[in-house]
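Hi U.,

Before I forget, here's the chain from the pilot set. I'm dumping it here mostly so it's searchable later in email.
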Amino acid sequence: GDIPDLPLNPPPCLYTRCGRNESGSNMDFDLLTPDSADAGPGLRSCCPSGCCVVGWTPIPDAPVNITFYVSRAIGARYPALTRLLRARQSDEVELDDATEVERNETDVRAMGAGVPLVFYVHGGGSAFLNVEAYDHLMRYHANRVDGVVAAIDYRLAPQWKFPSGIEDSIAAVTWLYKHASDFGLDTNRFVLMGDSAGGVITLSMMGMAIVRELPWVPSIKALGLIYPSVSGCMMTQSLAKHSDFPAINVHSIFWFKMLYWRSPNECFDWRASPLRMPHSLLQKLPPAVMFQYSHDPLKDSGVLLHHMMEDAGNQGQLVIMPGVHGIYGSDRFPYGMEAMDTVMQFVTKHLE
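Structure:
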C-alpha cells in the first residue's frame, strides 16, 4: 500500500527483442539506438542522441570484452582519448590506423587527464543479459561522474560456473589498472559498481582482491551495491513476503544459484554469499552505498549486510526507496531515476 502503482510495460528504449546467442542458451538483446530507423518518440525521449561518446571493444590485449563509455565533457576536453578507444576496437589494424593509435596513445599519456573510472558489472543472475542491455545506465553514469565507465561482458552460467564471473572482473580491473596511463585514467579514483548478481560479483571481487593483496586495492574509493543478492541460502522476511513476485522470487533466485554454482555447498562460500564475508575483510572494504527497494525480495539480506559492514567500521550509506527489483535507472517507473541520482551522489562524493 505504500508503493505507487507501476506500469506493466517496460520502457521501449531498453531493448526490442530477445533470442538465443551462439551458444544456444543465454539471452541476447538487440538494442535500438536513438538514431535507428525504428526508433520511436519514446526511445528518443528516453535515451537522447549524443548523451555521451562511446568506445567499443574487443581490445586485442584485454582479458575480456570491455565497453568504454566516455562522458560528453571528457570527450570534448580530451578528444585523443575518444579517438584512442575507437581506434583500438579492431583486431585488424591497417598501417595508417596503427600510426594513429600510437599517436593517440602518446597524446593521452601526455595530457595527464586524471579521469575517474567507474567499473560496472551488470546483473542478470550471472546467467543472462549483457552490457548492451545496460547502455542507457552506463551513459548516465559516465556523464554523472564526468569520466569513463568500463563495463564487461563476463562469462555466464550455466556454461561457466562460479567463480568465473568474479575472476573475469578481477582480470579486467587488473588490466585497467595496469593500462590506466594509456587511457588517461586516475588510479586514485576508481569505483566498483554492480546491480543484483553484478553487485555480488562487485563485493566478492573486492574481497578477493584484498585477500590476494592486488595492487589496485587502494585505488578503489567506493563501492556501489544495487540490490545485490548477497545470501544464497537464508530465508528472510522480505523474501518470504514477496515470494510470489513475478520477476524475481524465492524460486527464481535459487534457480539462478543452481545455474551458477557447482554445488549447493557453495552457499557457504563468502565469495558466493557475501553475507558470510569474514569480519576481517568487512573492515577493509572501501565505503559502500547499499541501495534497496522496499518491495524487493532481496532487501532484508542487503540491509543486514550493510549493518554488518557498518559494525565493521565501513563509512557507507543505506538507501531504501519505494519500488521493486530491476527498475534502477528507469525513467518509466517511480524512483528509478531518483535511485540512480542518489547512488551517484555517493559515488561522485568519494571521487572528489
